[in-house]
Amino acid sequence: MARVEEPVNRTARPVFRAFLGIALLLATQAGADPRDELFFGQEEDVAETADERDEIVFGSDDEEDERDARFFGDEGGDDRDALFLGGEDEVVSAGAPSDTPVFPDEDRDEGRLLEGLRIDERLGEASNRLDIGGLLYLRMQYGARSQGNPETFPVGSPNLLDVYMDARPNDRLRAFVRGRATHTFLREEEVAGDPLSFQQRGTSVALDQLWIKFDVDRRLFVTAGRQAIRWGAGRFWNPTEFLNPQRRDPLAVLHERLGVSLLKLHLPLEASGWNFYALANFEDAGLAEKIGGALRLEKLVGLTEISLSLAARKDHPLQLGADITFPIGLFDFRFEGALSRNVRRPFYRGPVSLDPGAPQPPTPYSRKDEWIPQLVAGAEIGIPYGDDDAVYVGAEYFYNGMGYDDPTLYPWLLFTGDFVPLYLGRHYAGIYASATGPGAWNDTTLIASLLGNLTDGSYLARFDWRVRLLTYLDLNTFAAVHFGNEGEFHFRLKLPAMEVPEELLPQLPPGLAETLAAGLEVPPAVLDLGVGISLRF
Q: Where are the domains of the chain?
């Protein structure tokens, strides 16, 4: 499945370098940091801190729920409020009185020594206000094609480094910054001619998150800056994620998409089960009129969770969304729907022909005045076995009103930038089964998934095996099989060598004319293999 990556943010490179320098300086000056207990202290302390850091590294946010932890194999991370607001036991109040005793004159020398020790202890407590850590994830991937020499099939090495600083001066304030660097150990020119390769290009640096959180009278909670956010109840598809410019990859081991520049106001009414959100979207807004807005309402009625969403922005679609989750017996049901109007990007219809003798591009048309629906329906059941083990099995269906019925348009969408995996066709389905810590394998997570584009009849089956080797070291492996008709998940790209008539050049995406002149053929992928090792620090 082709991956469409965001452009490299070159301007973020000096910011990230400065960020790393500050982190190293603070770490050097901290001296005897109490975080040494993570490595040399008691096992119970290690496990608790490691679970909390898992949430920080994996980017959990207010909208993530515990079902994600079951599906993705994350451990811990149940107390989301503690993650963002901090627990009272973890913070030393800025106004706390000194506990340094007053010593008599005859014990002055000894008193000074003890006082120095007390100061060191207090500095150690103060250092708990700033946590510095990160994640290093090294991985390799291999993609086998239906034709060709296995030695010439593409490989990928999208290695990732996340470094964060998490400051909590008291229980009402928090500042968080996380920088991200990705790097491949491979030569860029080896895959430059294959648009279906793993799309890794050299080294890139980006600022993932940069936000401050505080409250107003402990009632209204404000988060300002670049932050992670997720809306929607679907496991594979989330059409109500209106604020994220990049779709989430439901099969990814890590959620790698970057945060969004927002001002978020959150008003919870715990007694009545209401949550109100108001957001200003500053992402890519160069003018005041380009700033977008969004509203979200959440209501808990018994065990039923209901959410309503709205997002609007100049020159962008008006988007309405709703999702609901509720249990019936052993089953958890979830439904999610979105309506979009004023979608300005062009849609295409056939026929399309790449015949060198008579090339014919598809016909663009507008759906600006339509209300375009997208609907998700799913269910999940936990099947217990043993005293504390269970297998979770789920299924999901997605109707995509923005998708296409004609797979012959896919090559065109690939070069126009509209090739978005899992959102190309009209009808999709997915099933999965997951088990965390099955039997005596307490450090192992097993996940089996099957995704199908029902419109073009192509499918992807994937199996993930993840194991915690040491307290902070995880091994992740997967194998994926592509099968079915030639389509999204079993995609063939064949572009014959041809000279494009001059009258058609204005209709072509940049660079496509040169690609057509040279010709290109990529056989369908049949097997993907991947292995990665991640270290949290």
A: 343-537
